[in-house]
Every structure is written in C-alpha cells, then in structure tokens.
Specification:
Length: about 160
C-alpha cells in the first residue's frame, strides 16, 4: 500500500492491485457510441503528462473510466465528468455516511482543465474489483476533436 496526500485527502492505495485489475481487463472500456464518449476516447490521449503521471501513480489507466458524462461545451472544448475505482481506502477527507455535502475536502486540481475528488461509496462497481476500494471522481474540460460540430455547445 502506498500513501498519498493531495489537498484535503489522505489515501492509502494498493497501486499494484489497482494496476493488475485494469491490466487484466484489456477489453474496450468505453462502449457507448455517443459523440461525447467518442470524443473522450480521442481527447483522453491528449491529457498533459502531469495528469497522466497522476493516474499512473495510482495504478489507473485514464482510458478506462467506470462511467462518463458530459455537461456543456464550445466549438473547441467539452466539459464532463466520470469516475474510476481504486483498491485501497480513504484515510481522511471522505464524505461521511448520510452527509448532505459530497467531497467536504473539495476538489483537487491536477491542472486548469482537470480536477479530482474521492469518496468511499463506489458507483457501478464491478463484482471482481479488489476490496477494500474507493472511487475517484474526475472533472475534465477536454478538447473537442471529432470532425463534426460539438452537439454539447451552448448556442
């Protein structure tokens, strides 16, 4: 287990178990064919090296999210979110059970276009994912790379 402290979060991550899980599942993770997901598959490859290094330190592959969603965009960019699962536990900064406010430790900015937050409750967790585990929420503002108009634009 490796310990990480980012912002108000203190995490204990089983990096090897997390990496082994994602490595053992080579199948495509993004099976949705909406424009947002198709764009994410291209745009995630353009993440800055510092953001890719952050994911790698945790044993995560940024191209294998548990879920994705999209909010709004421009002709050049698309904002969205999603999450990833990690083996380990949150030592401090977690959302308390029954709390009305998620992520009391706030969002930790990786760069001007990407931020993360953590919680113990895992959504859509695969049955074979190693336990204990927690979830990393990921907000992003990525380039629009499809060769078509961004349908998420605010006109």
């Amino acid at each position: 287990m490796a310990e990480f402290v980012w912002g108000g979060y203190r995490l204990e991550v089983d990096v090897e178990a997390t990496r082994a899980y994602y490595d053992s599942h080579p199948e495509p993770w993004i099976t949705c064919t909406c424009d947002g997901c198709r764009n994410f598959m291209l745009a995630v490859k353009t993440l800055p090296q510092a953001v890719r290094d952050f994911f790698d330190a945790l044993g995560l592959d940024p191209e294998k999210p548990g879920e994705l969603c999209y909010y709004q965009g421009t002709a050049q960019r698309l904002s969205g979110g999603g999450w990833y699962h990690l083996a380990g536990r949150i030592l401090s900064g977690d959302t308390e059970p029954g709390a009305k406010v998620l992520f009391p430790a706030g969002w930790y900015e990786l760069d001007e276009h990407c931020s993360v937050a953590f919680k113990s409750d895992c959504d859509l967790l695969e049955e074979d994912f190693p336990r204990p585990c927690f979830q990393m929420e990921f907000n992003h503002d990525l380039p629009w790379l499809l060769n078509k108009k961004n349908p998420y634009q605010d006109d």
